[in-house]
Amino acid sequence: MSASTLPTREATRPHPGTELPRQSGFARALRRNLTAHGFLIGAVLCFAFFSWYPMVREFLLAFQKTKDGRTTWAGWSNLSYVFHDPAFWQAWRNTLLFTGLALVLGFVLPFLVAVLLNEFRHGQGYLRLLVYLPVMLPPVASVLLFKYFYDPGYGLFNRVFELLGLPAQQWLQSTGTAMLSVVIAATWMNMGSATLVYLAALQGIPGELYEAAELDGAGLLRKIWHVTVPQTRLVLSLMFLMQIIATMQVFTEPFLLTNGAGPEGSTTTVVYLIYQYAFNFNNYGGAAALGLVLLVLLAGFSAMYVRLSRDSDQ
Questions:
Q1: Is the pTM of this model over 0.90?
Q2: pLDDT tens-digit map of 97-116
Q3: I need a surface site. Which of 39, 68, 166, 233 has the fewest CB within 10 A?
């Protein structure tokens, strides 16, 4: 090809009087992200149908009454009925008691187990699997296993007590031990996830900090208090809030272990009371009102969790 036939730079330039068609920035972005938008639409629809719509419907039901197939606005009467129900305050006391006990066991124990696992240099993978194994079991199977353990006649725990010379306990039949028994079962079932989160945070701590603490003469407890805890403070705060949100919604464990209410209502939680309102008393307005109270409270903790998560990303 001769040099005269090659297009020159001047020939490829547009004429000064002509304008090339321009696409809007929105159209270019839409074409570029069309596949991502398709996946997002499915997720948004799922959230809208299974999460957002139930919340909006619950809010409306909290201010409505249904009688003889007719729905009417009830104003604040459902909330007034719930607040004047003695079971409401008992359920909140039991829920707060469960949350407190679950935080003592389910928040502190996984952290200590993670610290212990972090000290092992060999076989740590098998130990992680062993700790996480209860989480992989179906919750119903785990609860029924503990129900067998708690049996006052042939249960494993009372057999161990007999070998140790201790008196047998009415684990689920006594008002003094029913809630603690539920907390022990729930802690065993759920502590694996928290332990692995703490272990991942511990493995991110630089070893130089522990070496400097040893040079200063710090023992094991001082290293945990002055190095481990400050370095994992944000993770501990996030897990603390997550456990509060999770434990205040407890339902499966007391429902299967103590038939929900327990002896003298000692294991009746807020979520189980919502279940009673809706399916035992057919009071859907009262159930929605109680759920709205729980929703507002947990929304506050969720906002704190989002704030801490945003700080951790920064």
A1: no
A2: 999 999 888 888 999 999 88
A3: 68
